[in-house]
Each structure stands twice: as C-alpha cells, then as structure tokens.
C-alpha cells in the first residue's frame, strides 16, 4: 500500500495544467496504484495526479463500489445539468453545491495504454468532471457562483488546515542542462 500526502489548496501544483502521459510503463502503473490507495484511504470519490504532486493527466475514481482510472481523458458533456454537493480532498471539510453536466462520455486510456470509454451520469459524471478539472488546474470552487465562492474562500481562510502545509520544491536528480535545478 502506497499512501501519498494529498496536496492542499494553496499548493501551486493544483493550479498548473498537467501534461499528457506519453509512456505507459511501470512508473505509470505505480502512479495509478498510489492514486488508488491514497484515494481509498482518504476516503474520496476521486483523486487526480496533481493532488499528490504529479503533473500528469491521470486520475482515479471510486463511485458506487466501482474503482477505476483514466489516463489522458477527453470529455463529451451532456447539455442536461445537475446541481449538487461537491467536495475535494484538497479542500478538506468544504462542501458546496456545484453545477455540472448530468452525464459524460470520457475517452482515454488505461494504465497499459489500451483505449477506454467510460459513460456515466450523476455522481460518476460529477467525479469524472471534477478530476478532469484538476488536470487543467481548475478547482471546484472556481465553478461556484460569486456568492458561494466568496463564502467558500472565507471558510478556507478560517479553516485549521489552511496555510499549515507549505508546498515542497524538489530538485531534479537529472542533469537539467541549465534549465532549472
């Protein structure tokens, strides 16, 4: 079991768009395992790679007893919408109603590079949209109406966890040729 620390609101990695996965290798399979283990331990309905500090387009979900993952997702959203409670492991104990598409068709790949299509509605659709947003540097609070977002930001500033965890900066173990450290 590989439980990884979940990055909290304020960590820059949560606002940076993730890059497409190019190599479907053992490292990617370990990432999917780590994401799944961390999500189930939290527990949560989904977890995206940036939430554990990895800037790749990968996420996992756990909805209605089903565990899954998707790499390099592309979404087709229904015009019909749903408005309901949403939370995030990177924003502990924060829940607000958020407008989402009622259903989604998500295409991408599994951890072995095989093409996958996931069709879902209600909670699964919400989880897939939420996690794909993470891959684009978007948090669910960005999708709230002005009054709700203002209330959410107040709640975040007053929370016990806000500002306690400072983002870590890692130094690359590889030669960078003068590009960074």
From TrEMBL:
What organism does the UniProt record list as the source?
A: Nocardioides humi
Give the InterPro entries listed for this entry: Peptide_deformylase, Peptide_deformylase_sf
- Active-site residues, record numbering mapped to chain: 131
Give the protein name, as stated in the record: Peptide deformylase
* EC code(s) of this entry: 3.5.1.88
Cofactor requirements of the protein: Fe(2+)
Task: List the keywords (alphabetical).
Answer: Hydrolase, Iron, Metal-binding, Protein biosynthesis
Keyword Disulfide bond recorded: no
Q: Which reaction does it catalyse?
A: N-terminal N-formyl-L-methionyl-[peptide] + H2O = N-terminal L-methionyl-[peptide] + formate
Cofactor info, note text: Binds 1 Fe(2+) ion.
């Amino acid at each position: 079991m590989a439980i990884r620390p979940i990055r909290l609101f304020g960590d820059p990695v949560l606002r940076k768009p993730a890059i497409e996965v190019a190599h479907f290798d053992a490292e990617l399979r370990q990432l999917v395992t780590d994401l799944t283990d961390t999500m189930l331990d939290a527990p949560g309905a989904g977890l995206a790679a940036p939430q554990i500090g990895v800037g790749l387009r990968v996420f996992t979900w756990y909805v209605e007893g089903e565990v899954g993952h998707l790499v390099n997702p592309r979404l087709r959203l229904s015009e019909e919408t749903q408005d309901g409670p949403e939370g995030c492991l990177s924003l502990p104990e924060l829940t607000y109603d958020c407008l989402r598409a009622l259903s989604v068709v998500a295409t991408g790949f599994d951890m072995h590079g095989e093409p996958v299509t996931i069709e879902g509605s209600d909670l699964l659709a919400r989880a897939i949209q939420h996690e794909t947003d993470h891959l684009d540097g978007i948090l669910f609070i960005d999708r709230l109406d002005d009054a709700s977002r203002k209330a959410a930001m107040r709640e975040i500033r007053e929370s016990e966890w806000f500002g306690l965890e400072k983002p870590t900066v890692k130094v690359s173990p590889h030669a960078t040729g003068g590009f960074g450290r």
